[in-house]
Amino acid sequence: MKSGSKLAFLRGAMILNVDDEQHEIPLHFVLVSGFPGIAPKAFLSGEVDEDIIKNNPYVLKNMEILNQYMNNWKGFHVSYNLNTMYYYIYQSFLLQPPISSNPIIYPKEPEPAPAPPPKPNSNDRPFNGGIGDEDKDFKKALIMSKVQDKITTMNKIVGKLANASTVLNQHADEITALTDRERTRKAVLESEMEYIKTCSSQLEEKLETIYSDKLWEDTANSNEKMVANIDALVMPEDDVSGYILDYLSDEKACEETMEIIKERFRKKKISLDDYLESVRSLANQQYMSMAKRRKIISVLSANKR
């Protein structure tokens, strides 16, 4: 036999005294396969108003009766039994009676007291820590049932919050996509600006090169003219004086040339290797011209003495 299949069917009624009137509550128990390890099921029999079921925390939509005692059955089935389960159902219905839309009303008679729940054996597992006070156990079960209802309500709220979070995440993804597109556009604009700056820098370099070459050419032509003019104006008295003028002119030319090379290196027109090689060569040439000129002057000075 499969676990959970019907094993026995018990039908009966519960008499409740509500507002000084007796009401018959038809109900039935279903013992399923695996009982007593598996809790039995209890149902209302007959028709009951939907509003009554909706407002009753102990009756589900399928007319099933539920309370904390049956929820705890699996863990304490050694000491649990049908008589005690009936007792807790009775106590629950006293608090929230599921009065039928067409109740059966009996003449007023003293309400028979429900049978007390059987006392568990000393070897059985006690319910609620072995206190033995059924009223306290029922109140605790009732509180646990209300707590369970609160938990169910909170779970529904959490579900709604989860749905709201999903919607917010979708909006966040849309915002992120828009932000990414804006970043892409910004990157494209920055790239275009860098390209424009590069082209502008290259254009400036070309203009500076053209201007520098023109200036170099004009300076060279001017120097040639000045040398020609100086040669025409300054006439050495002898060959020795001519050598001194040539060496002095060479020194000044080397110095001016090094200044021009230095300026071109500062503007990154020539490499460091070319700059150092040119300066080293010009400095060596300038030193040799200066040394020869000073040697001639020292010899002339010595002869005059």
Description:
The chain is 62% helix and 11% strand. With 305 residues, the protein is an alpha+beta fold. Strands 1, 2, 3, 4 and 5 form a 5-stranded antiparallel beta sheet that branches. Helix 6 runs antiparallel to helix 7 (272-304). The longest helix is centred in the middle third of the chain and has 100 residues, at 134-233. The relative contact order is 0.06. Mean pLDDT is 77; it is low at 101-108 and 122-132.
The helix-strand sequence is EEEHEHHHEHHH
User: Which value, in Å, is the CA radius of gyration?
Assistant: 57 Å
Number of beta strands: 5
Would you tell me the overall average pLDDT? 77
Binned strand content: 5-15%
Strand-pairing-aware structural class: alpha+beta
**What is the number of helical segments per DSSP (H or I, 4+ residues)?**
7
What descriptive keywords fit this protein?
305 residues; alpha+beta
Q: What layout of secondary structure does this protein have?
A:
Blueprint: E1 6-18, E2 21-32, E3 41-44, H1 50-55, E4 64-65, H2 68-71, H3 73-76, H4 82-95, E5 105-106, H5 134-233, H6 239-266, H7 272-304
Antiparallel strand pairs: 1-2, 2-3, 2-5, 3-4
Helix pairs in contact: 6-7
Q: How is this structure best summarized?
A:
This protein is of the alpha+beta class and 305 residues long.
